[in-house]
Design brief:
Layout (H helix, E strand, L loop, with lengths): L1 E8 L4 E6 L4 E4 L1 H6 L10 E6 L8 E6 L3
Antiparallel strand pairs: 1-2, 1-4, 2-3, 4-5
């Protein structure tokens, strides 16, 4: 799923994203670390994956959106 980074706390390596429909989703340090990111700025386009592919499931991966 594509989303936009909304918040990010470098101390906890967790934050939140907004899906394209405006739905907010939180992610924890495991999802951030799985994507290999070092930093995330609010407004960056990201791709997120959840446990079962639905927005209701926990985020398991956050990566930068590339074309």
């Amino acid at each position: 799923m594509q989303a936009t980074a909304y918040t990010y706390d470098s101390g906890t390596r967790s934050g939140s994203v907004l899906l394209d429909d405006g739905t907010p989703l939180d992610f924890g340090p495991d999802a951030f670390d799985a994507g290999g990111l070092l930093l995330l700025r609010p407004g960056q386009r990201v791709r997120v994956e959840t446990e079962d592919g639905t927005p209701a499931a926990p985020i398991t991966l956050v990566t930068l959106q590339t074309l």
